[in-house]
Amino acid sequence: MAIALLLATAIGVTLSHLQVQATDHGFLLDVDGRPVDVQGWWSDTLNGLQRDCARVQRLPTQDAQLAPALHALQAESPPASRTARITAAWVAGPWLLVQAEFDELLPAVVLLQSHDGTWTVVPQGVWSGQTHPWRAGPLIRSYLQGRVPNAPATLLSCFEPQAIGHAPADAGPH
Questions:
Q1: How many Cβ atoms sit within 10 Å of the Cβ of residue 95?
Q2: Residue 44 domain flag
Q3: Is this structure's pTM higher than 0.85?
Q4: How many structural domains does the chain have?
Q5: DSSP of the chain, one letter per residue?
Q6: Which domain holds residue 134?
Q7: Mean pLDDT of residues grouped by 10 in the chain (174 residues)?
Q8: Is 79 inside any structural domain?
């Protein structure tokens, strides 16, 4: 009897610290007022186990291939886009996925496609903003796959968000 009471008390105390919140992007687990993206964690875990990045190359940010892509990115929505800096890049065939930062814009993840050796930003292939409280990888991958269904799934699955080094002063809480 004492063990059953102890077990019931332990379960009750644990459950008093947990709540499930339904939101636009799915469900969050609220642990003592702190939102936790359990679905995102699970998605990241499965993605890490299932993806095959053999045909995706991570490019150093100083790679010469990125110069024309950076030019395309800087020309996308001037004048604010002129300060674009590529902070991470992945390439798969004629597709390029870059993570970029700007002086006055929120960080962005951008799909580009090569046509006759010229990189162009893919229409609808731009994600920009903060992801908190969601895990960035699953949220951004899902967004881009939904907007650009012909983008290579292998490229998107190999995307791993890199730490953001700079955000505009008016970007709000992170």
A1: 22
A2: no
A3: no
A4: 1
A5: -HHHHHHHHHHHHHHHTEEEEEETTEEEEEETTEEE-HHHHHHHHHHHHH---TT-EEEPTT-TTHHHHHHHHHTSSTTGGGG-EEEEEEEETTEEEEEEE-SSS--EEEEEEEETTEEEEEEEEEEES--TTS-HHHHHHHHHHHH-TTS-HHHHHH--PPPP----TTS---
A6: 55-158
A7: 64 58 70 78 87 95 93 90 94 97 92 93 92 86 96 96 57 34
A8: yes
